[in-house]
Structures are given as C-alpha cells and as structure tokens.
C-alpha cells in the first residue's frame, strides 16, 4: 500500500493523492501499537505533531520511502534513524507561519491589555472598568528569538503596530541574546527544538528580564527551563507569560501551570486554522508524490 495518514489532514490532500492514483489509508486516530503493527505495509507516512515516528517505528517500516510532517516542527520524528535508512523526511516550513504569527500577536495584545482577566471578570458578573488599565504595543521593545518563516512574519506584524524589534537568531542578530532579554518589554520565542536550543532559555536569562516584561513561547516547551520559568512567574519577577507549548503534552489537568494567575495558556493551537491545515497538507502531499515518483522534494528536512 502507498500512503498512511496518521493525523487529521485537509480533504484536499486526500483528493490530491487519489487523483494521482495513490492508495490512501486514513487513520487520524491511530495508536502507537497499531502504527507499529501496520507501518511495514506502506511507502509513505504523513503525520502532524501527535504521532511519533520513533526509531522503533522506523525499524518496522521495511518499505518506507518518505516521512512527511504537516507543519514546520519535526521533533516528533527520529531524523537520524530515518537518514540512516535513507528515508526522505519532508515538512511544510512556511504553511503555518501566518496562523502562528497571528496568535503570537493576539497573545501580546492580551498580555498588555489584561484581556484574559477582562473576559473572565465579565463572565463572573464583575465590571472592572477602573481596574483594567493596560499598555499599547506601539513603542514597545519586542525581542524575537528565532528568525525563520514565523519569526520574520512576526517582525513584519510588529513593525505594522509600531513596535521596536530586537532579533536574535543563529544566522541573523541585531543584538546578543543577553541584551535582548535585558532590554525587551516582550520576548517571543520561535525556534526549532534541537540539541542546541533545548534548555537555551534558562535561569540567568529569565532573571535578567525587566520586572514588567512578558515572555511568549510559541515554539516548543523544552526550549525553556521549566522550573526556572515557573519560579520567575510564581515570584512575580516578571509580569507574565503566554504559552502555547509545554514540557508535557497534553498538559495534565492538575498541572501547576494551570494555577498561575499571570499566565495565559492555550492548548498548542498555534497552527490550528483551516487555512494553515490546508496549506500544510497540500505542501506535504506534493512532496510525498514527488518522492514516490522518483523526484526530489521541495522541502527536505
């Protein structure tokens, strides 16, 4: 069989495969045990972030030629093992950048204006008109850590709002990472998770932030030292944070992170728009077809 799809995709991607004569097995709720049992039958597998393509899965994938990731991150795929087996890995690096950057801006505005507290207070029967004084994004210094597809789009949006932008990336820097953390009113993270970025944002950087500053993480939880961030929020050494990603997902119902009053938490929905899903699905599907037809993909990892 040709293609196994392990997570929800756009209907257009399914149609795309079928029009080109490929057989498709659509299993958007497949379990790890089922995947291990069935992966050996397929030439291609298509996943989002839920499904983990581990070394064990790859070892069972005797006929696999290509692994496709709907989205930009690929930390749920054992890249080294795939390369050792000469399995091509592709992703959709720019497909979700608009969705993630828009949610990033929403988080900034919500933090600055106390939007979350305003909505909750109204639902609770209160009228806090005189208590909810916020700040404007215009004129703020915003540090953007990571200058890939998403980071660049965030910078464009920030400039439209009149913010001053500091950038830190391995390939492009307007200042050092230490200066960015020390000077910024808001810091937003848009990095891929790898050996060089895991734990990059630690206690020293977090404790160097302004007392009235905010941190936003839209990339991956392990990029930030979990306990260090919790402590600066719990002790109110910084004004607050917004997280869309965590060190354990799903976030447990009794997690201490759910109890912090100065945290906005969303359930990893950065790329969760219909438009992003369609773009990412078609981008990944197109590269699968290229590989199976013997051509080079457009977006190899």
UniProtKB/TrEMBL annotation:
<dbReference type="GO" id="GO:0006564">
    <property type="term" value="P:L-serine biosynthetic process"/>
</dbReference>
<dbReference type="InterPro" id="IPR006140">
    <property type="entry name" value="D-isomer_DH_NAD-bd"/>
</dbReference>
<dbReference type="GO" id="GO:0051287">
    <property type="term" value="F:NAD binding"/>
</dbReference>
<dbReference type="Pfam" id="PF00389">
    <property type="entry name" value="2-Hacid_dh"/>
</dbReference>
<dbReference type="InterPro" id="IPR029752">
    <property type="entry name" value="D-isomer_DH_CS1"/>
</dbReference>
<dbReference type="InterPro" id="IPR029753">
    <property type="entry name" value="D-isomer_DH_CS"/>
</dbReference>
<dbReference type="GO" id="GO:0004617">
    <property type="term" value="F:phosphoglycerate dehydrogenase activity"/>
</dbReference>
<dbReference type="InterPro" id="IPR036291">
    <property type="entry name" value="NAD(P)-bd_dom_sf"/>
</dbReference>
<comment type="similarity">
    <text>Belongs to the D-isomer specific 2-hydroxyacid dehydrogenase family.</text>
</comment>
<keyword id="KW-0520">NAD</keyword>
<keyword id="KW-0028">Amino-acid biosynthesis</keyword>
<feature type="domain" description="D-isomer specific 2-hydroxyacid dehydrogenase catalytic">
    <location>
        <begin position="3"/>
        <end position="301"/>
    </location>
</feature>
<dbReference type="GO" id="GO:0047545">
    <property type="term" value="F:(S)-2-hydroxyglutarate dehydrogenase activity"/>
</dbReference>
<feature type="domain" description="D-isomer specific 2-hydroxyacid dehydrogenase NAD-binding">
    <location>
        <begin position="105"/>
        <end position="270"/>
    </location>
</feature>
<dbReference type="InterPro" id="IPR006139">
    <property type="entry name" value="D-isomer_2_OHA_DH_cat_dom"/>
</dbReference>
<dbReference type="InterPro" id="IPR050857">
    <property type="entry name" value="D-2-hydroxyacid_DH"/>
</dbReference>
<dbReference type="Pfam" id="PF02826">
    <property type="entry name" value="2-Hacid_dh_C"/>
</dbReference>
<keyword id="KW-0560">Oxidoreductase</keyword>
<protein>
    <submittedName>
        <fullName>D-3-phosphoglycerate dehydrogenase, D-3-phosphoglycerate dehydrogenase</fullName>
        <ecNumber>1.1.1.95</ecNumber>
    </submittedName>
</protein>
